[in-house]
Amino acid sequence: MTQRYRIRWTKEGRTRYISARDLTSVWERGLRRADLPIAYSEGFTPHPKVSFPDALPVGYASTGEYAELTFVAPIVPDRDLARLSATLPTGMDITTYLAVPDGAPKLARMLKATLWELVWPPNDVAELTELLHRRSRELVASERAEVVRRRPDGDRIIDVRPALLTLAASTRPTEGGDVCTVLRAVLRNDGPTVRPTDLHAALSRDDIAEPLRYRRVAQGEAVDAGLREALSDAVVPLVPDVDAEAA
């Protein structure tokens, strides 16, 4: 009897540079070291039954990656998934899991939207935050927001507005005691892919610097306050709760 678990995991630090192509090998090695009874596909080249709903662009950080694992024998999830997490590279950690009941909707259907976070260094914080407030209001009020996405095979015109559900600029203390500017945005996952770099291009008129970091915070369903995370049902706020995140 097989068991399925859906997990949320992180991709931080140096693991940001692991490509989607190499990700399967990383998880296969981790499962082998953890000695878990993962199921394998059939055919000439069997692979572990670990499915990822979508690929994170190389270089992006994430605390909101998801996967579904199928096991051929029962596991003790608290113990065994913690053991699996310990075998993964530093920066990749399993943070949440959920057993999958029979008849459950596909994982991809639970990930209707993504909460993205853009963080700038602690320079000109008040001016940048106010500018982002103003540009955010203008973007939400617009009907179209076309940007040029540069690609090796030719540039593309992307309309950011249909994917944008909500966004808000705020400030947050850094570990060094300074204050930085943070923009969080909820983007739809269905339809044409809009990346946070496209969002930055829509907000900037050559007067907003490139963010220090892009991070996928969580995925799930958009709500007024931010995003309802898919596995825990917890609401991840659009304006970061500094005290909660510090805890």
Explain what the structure shows.
The protein is an alpha+beta fold and 247 residues long. 24% of the residues lie in helices and 33% in strands. The protein folds into two domains: 3-108, Alpha-Beta Plaits, CATH 3.30.70; 113-246. Strands 1, 2, 3, 4, 5, 8, 9, 10, 11 and 12 form a ten-stranded mixed β-sheet that branches. A two-stranded antiparallel sheet has the order 6-7. β6 and β7 form a beta hairpin. It is elongated, with a radius of gyration of 19 Å. The protein starts with a strand and ends with a helix.
The proportion of residues in beta strands is: 25-35%
Outline the biggest β-sheet. 10 strands, mixed
Quote the distance from N terminus to C terminus.
39 Å
Taken together, the total number of domains comes to 2
Please report the number of helical segments. 6
Average pLDDT confidence is 93
What structural class do you assign from the helix and strand content?
alpha+beta
Order of helices and strands: EHEEHEHEHEEEEHEEEH
Q: Helicity level, as a percent range?
A: 10-25%
In short:
The protein contains six helices and twelve strands. It is α+β, with helices and mostly antiparallel strands.
Q: What is the strand and helix layout of this fold?
A:
Blueprint: E1 3-11, H1 20-34, E2 50-51, E3 61-71, H2 77-87, E4 94-99, H3 107-110, E5 113-119, H4 125-141, E6 146-149, E7 156-159, E8 164-173, E9 179-188, H5 196-203, E10 213-223, E11 226-229, E12 235-237, H6 242-246
Parallel strand pairs: 3-10
Antiparallel strand pairs: 1-3, 1-4, 2-3, 5-9, 5-10, 6-7, 8-9, 10-11, 11-12
